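User:
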Amino acid sequence: MVFNGSTPPCRGGSPGSNPGVRSSLTVLLLNWRRPQNILKVIEGWRAQTVRIQIFLWDNGDLERDIGKDFPPVDLYVKSSDNLVCYPRWLLGTFAKTKFICTNDDDIMVTDSTLAECIIEELEHKPNDVIIGPLGMRLHNGKYNLTQYWANDATVDVVKGRMMCLHTSFLDHVFLRPSTPEIVASTEDIYISSFSDTKYVPSFFNGKLRDLPAGKCGLNESPDHLKRRQRAVDCFFGRPQHKRPLELL
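Assistant: Predicted structure:
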């Protein structure tokens, strides 16, 4: 369904040539009732040509310790409650790598050079840049279903399915938001609101594929679009919530 085009090279050169490079990317994963997908997601990242750190927050099946089913990860947190999506950004504060990247449990990496492409793209960019394969533009402050797929377009929101950024970006995000009930399921809108530079590079094409989503995704909720519009109104309509970079 997604990113089935030809695979563009990374911007600057020949990925796949640095198997010994020290890890500079931490991937932030969430599990919610799709452990079989998480296994594939981890497999895709472990196959990268550079070493990757993997952190996993498990919101999943509370009747069993799903963590025993997963391949070893670098940090694993088993939650006693489903705290939805926002905890992955809390995991990000423990990353010791220069960059972090989210990966939802309904999409997986299929190309072993993607991590190098992400690192290469972000390496010389300011620390407030966010990139990913999928984004949305707001029209007159309205959230809509027009999506931009890995075509180098600038966007207002990089979708949470995969958001790649400098770890230091989190230094100027309020990690204890004043509206946690909104942020929990719309954290991609919240995080995107702190950045003035967001785009969807074409190198993601051909490097990802969808996984079965079942009926437990957030978009299955009848008020999904209403909640996302509320988040846009709250976070993009109030620029004063940003923490000034010059004060860091």
